[in-house]
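Researcher: Next entry in the queue.
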Amino acid sequence: MSQPEFITRFSGIYEHSAWVAEEAAPFVADSTDLDAISAVMADCVDNASTEKQLELIRAHPDLAGKAQVAGELTAESTSEQSSAGLGQCSAEEYDLFQALNTAYHDKFGFPFVMAVRNSSRAEILEAFAGRLENDPDTEFETALAEIHTIARLRLQAMEEAQ
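Model: Structure for this entry, 162 residues:
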């Protein structure tokens, strides 16, 4: 496919960060190998400046957050959060997610990012609480690793939809 077609098709793989597809396009626009596409896109992120990586992390929505309640998530995020049952939180769970989101933002300056597809609310809450114990550098790297997992899952979902 052409580079513009590649960018259009893959611009949503990394949340609100079409720059990843734009940077990867010259290298893999002609490829149909999702492993190669995934690797090149991940490499673009890994070799980006810390500031650009932080922007990418901050492009992700809070889990069970206000954007979800207001229906403002991307289609991909909506599907991912729904698969984990985050749209069916009890009032207590919702309050706990809000408290954890606030604590996490206060400590790290960016949202908690986790590849939640096929996870339960309990598993997510447990990971959330555990990762609040991390130091900022560890959590920054963990967030990027989770973002790569999300991207790979999104690529797989695109392939399965064909």
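Model: The mean pLDDT is 90.
Researcher: Noted, moving on.
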